[in-house]
Every structure is written in structure tokens, then in C-alpha cells.
């Protein structure tokens, strides 16, 4: 079973509110078997015209684990802080690559 990744891209509008969100978010990710791979502002864009400035990539052992994290009461209790701190963004869960026949 391939790993799964959560990709969040957004513009930060309220750093104080985001500061309240981050510790709880990291704790909830770890509690669901996940890890923070990327949490960065800015990027080296080679194609396209991205409309957001911040990127976060989380890794989970499976799609089910990633969805379980997002839907968990612990994460949902703090998700409003991210929504209030950011604008023009998205959060998606994608499955990792599994080679055919592998």
C-alpha cells in the first residue's frame, strides 16, 4: 500500500492565529502516524503561476491514515484556526506512487 500525502497551499493572513494552530496541528499529525515533510514560505516556481505563498506537505502511512487525521475530533477542534489565519488555499490528500507490478 502506498503512502499518502497531504498537500496544503495557502496565503497566510494572520500569523498570530497560525501560531496558535501549529502546535496542535503537529501533535495531531504525529498522533495519526504522520510526519511534516515541508512547511515553507516561498518556492522556486518553474512552471505556471501559483496563487499561494506557503506550502505544507505531510506524509502518512496510508490514505486512510491521512483521512483519519483530517477527520479526527482532535484536528477538527483546531482546524478553524487555520481557516481563520489563511485565505486563498487548498488542502488535498494524494496517494504516493506505486510502480505497476510492484
Strand order of the largest sheet: 2-3-1-4
User: What percent strand?
Assistant: 25-35%
> Helical content, roughly?
25-40%
State the shape.
flat
Gap between N and C termini, in Å?
Answer: 10 Å
What oligomeric assembly is this protein in?
A: single chain
- Give the number of helices: 3
Number of strands: 4
List the uncertain runs: none
Structural class: alpha+beta
Overview of the structural elements:
This protein is an alpha+beta fold. Strands 2-3-1-4 form a four-stranded antiparallel sheet. The relative contact order is 0.34. The mean pLDDT is 94. The protein has three helices and four strands, in the order βαββααβ. It is flat, with a radius of gyration of 14 Å. Helix content is 38%, strand content 32%.
List keywords for this structure.
single chain; 102 residues; alpha+beta; four-stranded antiparallel beta sheet; 3 helices; 38% helix; 32% strand
Helix and strand arrangement:
Layout: E1 4-12, H1 15-31, E2 35-41, E3 54-60, H2 63-71, H3 73-85, E4 86-95
Antiparallel strand pairs: 1-3, 1-4, 2-3
Task: Write a concise synopsis of the structure shown.
By secondary structure, this protein is an alpha+beta fold. It contains three helices and four strands.
Amino acid at each position: 500500500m502506498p503512502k499518502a500525502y497531504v498537500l496544503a497551499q495557502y496565503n497566510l493572513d494572520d500569523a498570530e492565529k497560525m501560531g496558535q494552530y501549529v502546535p496542535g496541528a503537529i501533535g495531531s499529525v504525529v498522533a495519526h502516524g504522520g510526519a511534516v515533510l515541508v512547511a515553507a514560505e516561498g518556492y522556486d516556481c518553474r512552471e505556471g503561476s501559483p496563487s499561494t505563498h506557503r506550502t505544507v506537505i505531510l506524509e502518512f502511512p496510508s490514505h486512510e491514515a491521512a483521512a483519519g487525521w483530517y477527520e479526527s475530533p482532535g484536528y477538527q477542534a483546531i482546524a478553524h484556526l487555520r481557516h481563520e489565519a489563511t485565505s486563498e488555499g487548498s488542502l488535498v490528500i494524494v496517494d504516493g506512487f506505486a510502480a505497476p507490478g510492484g
